[in-house]
Amino acid sequence: MYSNATQTKVTCYHCGEDVVEKHYHIKEKEFCCRGCQTVYEIINKSDLCSYYDLEQNPGINQKQEIRKGKFDFLDDAQIIKKLIHFQDDTHQHIIFYLPQMHCASCIWILEHLNKINSGIIKSQVNFIKKEVTIIYNFQETSLKKVAEALTLIGYEPHISLNDVSTDKVKKYDTTAIVKLGIAGFCFGNIMMLSFPEYFSLAKSDDIGLKTWFNYLNLFLALPVFFYSASEFFISGYKGLRQKFLNIDAPIALAVLITFGRSLYEILSGTGAGYLDSMSGIVFFMLIGRYFQNRTYQSISFDRDFTSYFPLGVSVINEDGTEKQISVADLKVGNRIKIHNDEIIPADSILFLGKATIDYSFVTGESLPVEKSIGEIAYAGGKQTSGAIELEVVKEVSQSYLTQLWNNEAFKENKEEVKVSFIHRVSRYFTYFLFSIAAIAAIYWSINDPSKVWGTVTAVLIVACPCALLLSATFTNGNMIRILNKYKLYVKNASVIEYMSEIDTVVFDKTGTITEQGKSEISFQGIELFETQSQLIHSLANQSNHPLSKSIVSFLPFSKRLNIKNYKEFKGFGTSATINGHFIKMGSSDFVLGKDSAQLISGSRVYVSIDEEFIGYFIVKNAYRNGLEKIVSSLHTQFDLKILSGDNSSEENYLKTIFGNKTEMLFEQKPEDKLNFIKHLQNNHKKVLMIGDGLNDAGALKQSNVGIAISDNTNNFSPACDAVLSGKNFTLLKELVNYCRKQKTIIFSSFVLSILYNFVGLFIAVQGDLKPVIAAILMPISSISIVLLTTGLSSFYELKLKKLNPDKSQF
Amino acid sequence: MSAIFIMIGASLLLAIGFLIAFIWSVKSNQYEDDYTPSVRMLFDNTTIQETKQETNNNTKKTK
Asked: What is the pTM of this model?
């Protein structure tokens, strides 16, 4: 299996990353870090090496070490009770969300967990949801040990505050499929039993057979009418009660009339009715709905801060002992301990330790902020430099960040506010239909009163508005599927319609137009030799400052050098004697002894070796590839704006990309962003907000369409209408324009269905509608609509296809 | 001609049997995850049997 040994570039046997340091190897297998090696040892020891045979380098990189005791809170009986799904005398069932899951090997090893922890009875993976259900014996092992066993092999379960909220179990809804199955079954059988009727096989003397078939049809139509079609009746009735004629009302009416007339004909023995058409309509419409409402199980669109916050936190008691409690139970005055890479769950005051807090996700500030003792640290920030102790000053639900979720924007439901254009069209259609029925009724009441009843019902049966609904649902379903292919995951079909009305695009900066966690570095000065870069690397490696960390990742790795007299001057820089050379690194004031000129963009780090200035590093935000191109193409069509939580240090650079006219606002609080969007909307703008972090959550919710950019769809993204992969950011304009085609497609298929309707109506108004005509017209019109919408949406996709930068499948 | 009454009835009953089987399969969440089983069935049999035996041993121990 080890095919990489002969290549010059060695990749880690476990995770497949390039091996830089050749420290870690077992026999001929190389590893990139100690973590990966440890995982391999465990897997090897447990006799689970098939893991490496199923896929090449299937592992998850272990460079980031996970703190021991991270899962201590899982020993708390209260927390266990809230997390587990089922418990009997010996067993507990738990479902863990494992975002790292990505391949067949993952499934294999996760279903063989009992080799690692024998207390685990059974583990079953749901790959689509990235979940594993584990049944374990809680007398032999514990929830904490199960979580640790998973962490040990590199699958750290994601446990957040949201997991203990009340409605945690999202039930898999099967009723739609059952309704569809029953409607399809009955439709097929009714059609089959109607064949004698279609071809007049049953002669009038064979009354017995005819009646038998008709009654069987009636029997089969009952579940369709009462069960499968029930949602149309309920929704139509609800709409009418609010004095609103929605799209389901005319459909419910058509189904009701068809069923009523068929019932009358069969019971009175005057005809066979139109039960085949009725069940066919219901079947096709349910397919359309199912197709449109298919959701992505692995993407959640309604996350709030609780999915981002941790579940447990260590509280330090007065006697100095640590205790794990649930974040929800934190009280003002609690002393908490936050370890490296943990999120601060509540607004608190720094008490002990050195805090460097990364707020990029919460406020949009691109660089971590250093806090000194006594300063307040807001909830949501991620500690990046060792353990700290804090005292809680506000409860979780009261904190600066979570206040945002109390805003009214989170209370109203977008879908209920707006009325889709399909509803409007369907209303006109209904009026049109009623007037035709009325004209036919008047005509026949003068000429042949016996035909009135038959004609009116026939008009309503044949000119079913379902064509409109079918056009809409199949177009939407197909467009959602195609957008999905381009990594734009929309929450529901109405998002497509809102998207087509957009005239203003608002960008967040950090993480949206810049790439998250990346910065662009360049060195200006003398040419760096290996020895010099090694010295700088060694010094930068000592510091936890974000700029030092960027420099470390920029320079090639060096041997460990002998470091003496390391000193760090907060806010200025660092110095040390390495291999006999005295190196200084930091601000120009610190290194050169004088202030430098104002910067256009980014921060500079000056370096001197042996008191001789050699140059400086420029650390800038790394903007997404192709940003300039997409901005200039968007400019022609939309009003662009930038709304950033960060400081204005990049303003001049952004102006070179976005132009001087683009409105740019910096240092925006989450509420400011929300209010800015509201202000735009009050000026009748239709706003598309593009953001990524928690601070954009309000703006995303308030905007007409909120798109969250995510470089990894498994990562947390705030509540939004759609999630777009960062790789396909450059497709934004084309994706929006694609959504604009929705109306065109729906209208063209609607025109087609009108043509069929005219043929049907023409026959119906003459008062002579044979069931066979209805039975032929109905499926033909339905199928041709489906073909037309599919064809058109694929045709418009061609433009997207040409530009797609990321061809990998989901 | 009376045979057709019985035949149609019987065929319908048979079909309803399949409908019930379908509903049962949906209700028992067999359509919830349509990807994992397709991967699972390709795994090496030997190891899975081993695991099963071990699982049985474990359950025996606990009883």
From this structure: 0.77
